[in-house]
Amino acid sequence: MTAIAAERYTGASIKRSEDPRILTGTGRYVDDIKLPGMLHAAFVRSPLAHARVLSVDVSAARALPGVVAVLTGADLEAMTVPGPDTLMALMGWQGPSPEFTLLATDKVRLVGDPVAVVIAESRYLAEDGCELVEVEYDDLPAVVNAAFALDPSSPPLFANLGDNIARRHSRSESGDVSGTLANADRVIDFHIDVHRHQNVPMEGRGCVASYDADQGVMTFYAATQGVHVSRMAVASRLGLEPGKVHVLAGDIGGSFGLKIGASREELAVAAASRLLGRPVKWVEDRGENLTVSGQAREESFDVRAAISNDGDLLGLDVKMVIDTGSYPGMGVMVPDILQGMLPGPYKLRALGFESTAAITNKAPYVAYRGPWASETFVRERVLNLIAKDLGLDPVEIRLRNFAPRTDPPAMMVTGRPLAGVTSKESLERVAQLVDFPAFRRRQAEARAQGRYLGLGMATFIEAAPGPRSAEPDAALGNESMRLRLTEDGIVELFTGQMPHGQSHQTTLAQIAADEFGVPFEQVRVVVGDSDVVPFGLTGGSRSATMTGGVTLHGARELKAKVLDFAAHLMEVSAQDLLITDGNVWVRGDPASAVAVSEVAQRAASGPFGDDVDAKLEVEATYDGGEGGWSGGTHCAIVEVDVETGIVKVERYVAAEDCGALINPAVVEGQIRGGIAQGIGAVLLERSAYAEDGTFQSATFMDYLMPTACDVPRIEIQHLETVPLDAHVNFRGVGEGGMIVAPPTVVNAIEDALSPFGVRIYEQHLPPARILELIAAADPGQ
Amino acid sequence: MVNITLRVNGATCTGSPEARKTLADFLRDDLNLTGTHLGCEHGVCGACTVIVDGRAVRSCLMLAVQAAGREVTTIEGLADDGGLGPLQQAMWDAHSFQCGFCTPGMVMQATAFLSDHPEAGEQQVREALSGNICRCTGYQSIIDGVLLAAERNRER
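Output (structure tokens, whole complex):
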């Protein structure tokens, strides 16, 4: 690798150190692991959405040559310990907890529910074995939507709950909700739906579990967002000491929130390995990934908006219903986050919010990039609908309602300070780039020719990590890192982050190289080994601030320690020493330079007196400093073909503020990737179920992913940020694109169809739906 | 089991796969060439794309036995001694990828396309790669990498 010439690495688009292995096929993903004696697992899955399991006959499968074991739900139940969903446990969920087994015992609760696992000498043979397992079912009525789930007559999925409510109806109010509604010039009601769609990383879930009976140690090769969370899950459900579970992870082919902890299938595979004393691999196929791995976002909102005749959005009263699918997890926790974020960067004075989480015979709700994103969709839709009612421009209504940036900062009505938020600047930047008046002229000309162009915009903020606030439960949990200088002169960072596309191996090395004073190539980022990395999780867009921050401060601490030791060696004061380009030298005397590797070798050669600390290693923690918001405004220009219903995104502009950039190319990749998912969510993607609960989008011919022809070139502008912290102003940028692109695109489509009087209250707009909307619209509106 | 002989990345290989074994599984399991990834196993995502006799092929839809007597190139065979070929280098320079899972298929698809269409512009490249799904990048960086490689190739 060639050395990189840069004054500072931080802030430059340094080429990724991950890429040489990825580009040559020498990365190591979980499916690339091959261990001696390794067996392969495949699951027998339910063809029905809701049914009692009457019998499972595995005798023919067990007799198949090459099949080593067939385990049923009852077998697994006897080998494992009951326990809650890992993520729910991690987040301290206190609500209703349905009881269920790793594989189905008494009943199946969704199409694809695992009933038995076949372990064989190859995946081919394991799947042959699955074909031979006979399961007898007794159909139950399928609960396929939230409305039926909340009807007391619906059959409960979980016996211990007695109904299909995963979270009891709860209501809370911020500000004077009834007074605001009573005194507003107008109150407008909306019902807004967000459809079910899903993460779909290109690599599905998977693991290799390898139990060493002599040592009593489970080695678990995972595709995960955090090795320690996977370790917790495996240890607790297998009844092992956490110290006896060793989780390793290599390259991971995307996740977007899906791969947290260990899934029911992965836990079954771990149990099978312990039983058989041989390594067992399971990597889900695309059908399994689409059908059962997890889905997100099926939410509906009844919204009452209190507005003034001038266009002030005074208050909102929102009733949310979330369809958490079967086996509730993340879905029950989404409403709280969504409620907190609903005011966005606006002056909203009052918010009433209540929510109900329903259990249905569909795939479990999982975290998907910006799990609370529907708050932005609802708010940015409502603003456009109100603007239309009042005859206001969408830009004008936003500028009117943005909270001004003041000192002390304005507070969201839900409690957090809007410190350093640059929504207004981002909107103005977008308006300037796109030249709205010129667009309106072009739009009018196009309409005269029967072509329908539309422009839409939306603004978001993201707590990445969020501002420091006076509340004791501020969002900033600490981040830890171990840093050391090796005898080779390598600065090693041990982080609990588990990158799966985020480029931490590059970005953290950039920061450490600058702060410590070594070339970029002289930093090694160690991830994915629960024996050596601290606790952590890649998610919630926290790594830029939290891990960037602990890297910055940790590298400074390590440098101070190295300089103290070097001062002892060189018999000078540490204050007179510098480290640049991998050398320690006395200020003003370049000839004094000693390589940091030499300093490290001397430190290892000890012993030294008690007054000398030769252990060139630090444990650093970071609390997020002053934190801050990410955010921005996006704008899309679309053309709708009103004959076919096809929407083409002609132009897409994003003005973003994610604080100081660590690596602009990495930041822009995150933004573009999120936007692509948002465009896909609106125009293509839907996790579709038939009325009997049959899953209808189990292949890539049914679940349509955006391609290189669907996603336009995306123009990104970075705003100068408002620095809040004296040292660390990197902010997270992982989720914003996916949060704000759906309302941006939908707003543009509604604008394009305004000559037809189309109003849009939903998010999924494939061609057939566009045509329905046009046909049903009232041009008089 | 069927005995086959084929050339993979310039070397002659023999193997005895089951008749039903896909070329992708043969490459990954029997030849340990795990650079070829499986993203859907039904021919839509393109992650498993390899080059067979000069043409981009979905190795999940081709049986290993169908590759008998043919010349197969995988991501591992694009450059000598672990280095980067011109397209791989351009894709590194362009920050083309994130998680890397779709990468081998994208690189192989683009390799086959550029060898036939050295003058291709952006729209042609988009169409050529529209059968390869990437979930991370929004494609722009990948397109830019391919266009950069084409441009460098023309300047040589």
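Confidence is low (pLDDT under 50) at residues 1-5, 472-476 of chain A.
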